[in-house]
Design brief:
Layout (H helix, E strand, L loop, with lengths): L12 E3 L48 E4 L2 E7 L4 E7 L13 E6 L7 E11 L2 E11 L4 E3 L8 E10 L2 E8 L4 E8 L7 E7 L17 E9 L2 E2 L6 E5 L8 E3 L8 E5 L4
Parallel strand pairs: 1-8, 2-15
Antiparallel strand pairs: 3-12, 3-15, 4-9, 4-13, 5-6, 5-12, 6-7, 7-8, 9-10, 10-11, 13-14, 13-17, 16-17
Length: 267
């Protein structure tokens, strides 16, 4: 089991949709990078991001695992790229505050960094709130300010360029916007490639945040190193609570790169 810390709930920054595609966009407080422009247009709940490596995991010999905060598919080996498409699911909200995110990334399954980009649906005040982001964990995450709506089609990718250089691309083809972020992170292992639905971490006490009811999210065209992720014998990860009850279920891979995750419980 990987023992690790959680991201602070303050000091995060937003990136406006007008940021130049080639410009690095990083969160404030991480020298030597320049602070990102702050646009306080998001509710406070957006100051909590996912991005932690998989917590509370188990590794049976068969290609299945359970996790407190991840579900989806992860391939292990040596990877320089990962990509996938997904449809932003609709949040089904009660008065309770809940969180859920959907992303592609390198690392985090068996390492202490994660290079990732994706989208979110959280529940705040009884209503769903949609947005998107990227993160070079353990650096702070960065939220994009572009409009995200349920039903939007996303394409996401993370590419390792060599050295400490990464390119992260997130495109909402329904809304017609995209971001290409050039970022640096030293010491990353590039030892896994993932396509994930996540219950973000953390509360002040370090706990996993309750999972928002996202219904079903559909991922497609999941690839690692340019080939279907199924070619790498990936592990299917199911999210469970402390009693071992499934928080969601994950379908088998179809065509080597398509699957769905279906919500069952918040925690």
């Amino acid at each position: 089991m990987l023992s690790r810390w959680c991201i602070p709930l303050a000091g995060l920054a937003l990136v406006a949709g007008s940021v130049a595609a080639s410009a690095p966009a990083v969160a404030a407080g991480r020298a030597p990078h320049a602070p990102a422009a702050a646009h306080p247009v998001r509710p406070v709940i957006h100051l909590i991001r996912p991005g932690n490596p998989m917590i509370g995991r188990s590794f049976p010999r068969i290609s299945q695992a359970t996790s407190s905060n991840w579900s989806g598919y992860a391939a292990t080996g040596s990877f320089s790229s990962v990509s996938a498409s997904w449809t932003e699911p609709a949040g089904h909200c009660t008065s309770a505050t809940r969180y859920s995110s959907f992303w592609v990334g390198l690392d985090g399954y068996n390492s202490n960094t994660v290079e990732q980009t994706g989208s979110e649906v959280d529940c705040s005040g009884g209503s769903p709130v949609y947005y998107s982001w990227y993160e070079m964990y353990p650096a702070f995450p960065v939220n994009f300010s572009n409009t995200v709506r349920p039903g939007d089609h996303f394409n996401g990718s993370v590419t390792f360029n060599g050295g400490s250089s990464y390119t992260l691309v997130l495109a909402d083809t329904t809304q017609g916007w995209s971001h290409t972020v050039h970022a640096s992170l030293g010491g990353a292992a590039n030892s896994s490639a993932e396509v994930i639905a996540e219950a973000p971490c953390c509360t002040a006490g370090g706990g996993i945040l309750p999972l928002a009811n996202f219904g079903t999210v559909n991922f497609s065209n999941a690839k690692a190193n340019g080939s279907p992720i199924g070619n790498f014998g990936p592990t299917r990860i199911t999210m469970v609570d402390g009693s071992g009850r499934q928080k969601d279920s994950v379908s088998s891979l179809s065509g080597g790169g398509s699957f769905s995750a279906t919500w069952h419980r918040a925690n």
